[in-house]
Design brief:
The chain is an alpha+beta fold and 719 residues long. It contains 22 helices and 22 strands.
Length: 719
């Protein structure tokens, strides 16, 4: 993502005690080494980046805008006059960078601190006066593209609504918490007939995270100011230089030595933490991906899109981490193996931001074995017939490259593991196979090519463009390891190598793709290198150097891979995907590679799509899920939220009720699902994928075949 990705985990509390609120930062200035770093970066990016774009005035203006957005994501702190003042210098910033001059960044940062001090004082005055929560007015909560306030009157009104919204959210939390505690108490009568609270229930006034609403909001704003006052020169320099790198594309960035160290830790398989990938979004640490086999994956409660707003070490008081730099948030989550960390989380599905949950996890190592491909054979019923379906979950494309390069014959790889699983499933008499690539963010390109070869005869798999031209990577093995009915599951987090495999199997007509309306759309590859190999203290550069193209010629960039049958998740209506990132590289096309499709699945897909839709419309679980998805979609589009207490309580209760209905519907047993394991019974996309594949298999086995049956039979037999 645009803010850069690191693996979740942490070391300790950064800010403690109210005494920290009095800290006032000194005016920051660039150190002498900053000039060297700036000159090195200015020379490296145009030379190394795939686009070979010059560091010119137009790029300089884009970097300027990106830098302001990093510092003021919601366009709430700077005034329009500040922005116009700074904009006059924007075209000159690239040439200054080439000379090692980064003073502009520090002047902008100092102005930001001035504005934040002003707004913290203003928020204090608003909270002292209180708010009328009966007035019908709204707040524009999605402000990243909004104009900055034109003057103090407009600025003050924006902040009155902003602070009122934050205050109101906490009031709603307390109302719902009290309602929940009262309901549970009423349902659990004490021994003397009194309504004693149920075990483990805490009323809002007793909960650690539920301070009085005004105290909560005041603390949050003061904490942001503390973070800015406590920032060092590296904090400013990294954001400024990353703004230039991300003017080229959202995956390039500059990393200081400290952030490089955190990245290196994240890439080690022995990482100790919660097992999640984080990105920085609107000041919060957002879950980007759950790492298979890690504590969060085994626990199951933490989901992609969830936002971590507070962290507690064991039974200690939680520390609010909103607005923390991502690397500091990572460090407070990471810790020693076997220790407990408690996360306060706003769920991704919560559209009002008023519902929080506390998730306790025990830190553990995330090893290669836990991330390896896993498979099982599941029974799926279609038209009264039980089919044995093999399901292989592939969280990443991995390989022991050291053993592979050295010529070792026993090296571990995702392709070998998948082949072994398929072999076992063949022995078990499976009638079809599902390859689950959901949340698979990629990995080894060679593995994606080799794994595609398990399902097709020799032919091109992907085209790779670099500065010197286009290279076609092919499957060299003429054999087909598995030739039966095949389905691939994808979602918005299926990216990079996952898109290569899914796209190739779709282009060859070898598999039916099911999932969200598209995959992530990351069709680029990044390389890492120190700015100066002789001096690692200058930091490093992550830079985009290659791009991918399908054998049919189209890039996977931006557009991703579009499934044949859409069975969407909540991710599908959230701003997840390459198209939502600033300065994403364009979709392009190259010549089609010479390949021969196995079959044309289009007619079969039309039949299967119709049957799947009818089936889901009759299933209460899918109706409940669709209700939740539509609520999230509507809120994402609306951009405004009511500042009236009764309106907000109504909205929050509706969300709570929908979530409860969804949970109850998923927990229901229904005909055909008796053999499902508990974790699978909650995976509605996998359940429907199995049914679609069962339809695909069943039609080819029916003695008296309709025209639709014959279409399906011909499709999976390759005719």
């Amino acid at each position: 993502m645009a803010g850069g990705l690191v693996w979740a985990a942490a070391f300790g509390i950064w800010i403690t005690g109210d005494a920290a609120l009095a800290v006032t930062g000194k005016t920051l200035e660039p150190d002498p080494q900053s000039a060297v770093v700036a000159r090195q970066l200015a020379r490296a990016i145009p030379r190394l980046h795939l686009s070979r774009r010059e560091l010119d005035e137009s790029l300089s203006v884009e970097a300027f805008q990106g830098f302001l957005n990093m510092l003021d994501y919601d366009h709430a702190y700077f005034l329009a006059s500040d922005v116009e003042e700074f904009r006059k210098e924007a075209p000159l910033l690239a040439s200054r960078l080439e000379k090692g001059d980064v003073s502009f960044a520090f002047r902008v940062f100092e102005r930001l601190r001035e504005r934040v001090r002003d707004r913290v004082a203003f928020a204090d005055s608003l909270l002292e006066k209180g708010f009328d929560l009966t007035v019908s007015e709204t707040y524009v909560w999605k402000r990243k593209d909004a104009p900055w306030a034109a003057g103090r009157e407009e600025w003050d009104d924006l902040w009155r609504r902003k602070v009122k919204n934050e205050y109101l959210a906490r009031v709603v939390v307390r109302h719902l918490s009290d309602e929940g505690a009262t309901n549970k108490a009423a349902a659990t009568e004490g021994p003397e007939g009194t309504n004693a609270p149920a075990a483990g229930v805490r009323r809002a006034s007793e909960a650690d995270a539920l301070l009085a609403p005004d105290a909560f909001v005041r603390k949050r704003h003061k904490q942001y100011l503390i973070i800015l006052e406590d920032s060092d020169a590296d904090f400013v320099l990294q954001r400024y230089l990353t703004a230039f790198a991300q003017a080229y594309d959202p995956h390039s960035e500059y990393m200081t030595p400290s952030t490089s160290e955190d990245f290196d830790i994240g890439m080690k398989l022995s990482l100790v933490g919660i097992g999640a990938l984080l990105s920085s979004e609107d000041g919060a640490a957002e879950i980007e991906q759950i790492i298979p086999g890690g504590p969060a994956d085994r626990d199951g409660r933490l989901k992609p899109g969830d936002r971590i707003i507070a962290v507690a070490q064991g039974d200690a008081e939680p520390v609010d981490i909103l607005h923390w730099p991502l690397y500091k948030a990572v460090r407070i989550i990471r810790g020693e193996k076997g220790t407990k960390v408690v996360l306060t989380v706003i769920p991704a599905s919560d559209i009002s931001g008023t519902r929080t949950v506390r998730i306790d996890l025990v830190r553990d190592e995330v090893k290669l074995e836990a991330q390896a491909a896993k498979g099982e054979v599941v029974p799926v019923v279609s038209e009264g017939v039980t089919n044995r379906i093999g399901v292989i979950r592939l969280p990443a494309f991995y390989a022991d490259m050291k053993q592979r390069v050295s010529g070792g014959e026993e090296y571990r790889s995702s392709t070998r593991d998948v082949a072994a699983l398929i072999l076992g499933m063949k022995t078990n008499g499976v009638e079809g196979l599902i390859l689950d690539l959901r949340n698979n963010g990629g990995g080894s390109l060679a593995e994606a090519v080799e794994m595609t070869g398990l399902f097709i005869s020799a032919g091109p798999v992907v085209q790779v463009r670099e500065s010197r031209g286009i290279q076609v990577l092919s499957d060299p093995d003429p054999g087909v390891f598995y030739a039966g009915p095949l389905m691939v599951l994808v979602n918005r987090f299926s990216a990079s190598a996952s898109e290569i495999l899914a796209g190739a199997l779709q282009d060859y007509g070898r598999a039916i793709l099911v999932g969200d309306s598209k995959t992530h759309g990351k069709g680029t590859v990044q390389s890492w290198q120190n700015l100066d190999e002789r001096n690692p203290r200058l930091g490093s550069l992550k830079i985009t150097t290659h791009s991918f193209y399908r054998v049919a010629g189209g890039s996977t960039q931006l557009k991703g891979v579009v499934p044949d049958i859409v069975v969407r998740s909540t991710l599908d209506v959230m701003e997840v995907g390459e198209e939502f990132l600033p300065h994403a590289m364009n979709w392009t096309v190259v010549n089609m590679a010479r390949y021969r499709p196995v079959s044309d699945l289009s007619a079969a897909v039309n039949v299967l799509k119709s049957r799947s839709l009818a089936r889901r419309q009759e299933d209460s679980r899918y109706r409940a899920q669709e209700s939740m998805i539509e609520r999230v979609r509507a809120f994402q589009v609306s951009r405004e939220i009511s500042l009236n207490l009764q309106d907000r309580l109504k909205l929050a209760r509706e969300e709570r009720d929908i979530a409860r209905l969804e949970e109850e519907a998923i927990s229901m047993d229904e005909e055909g699902d008796a053999g499902e394991k508990k974790d699978r019974s909650r995976d509605l996309v996998l359940i429907e994928g199995g049914r679609i594949l069962a339809d695909f298999i069943g039609m080819g086995q029916t003695k008296e075949k309709s025209n639709a049956d014959r279409v399906l039979e011909n499709a999976w037999s390759g005719k």
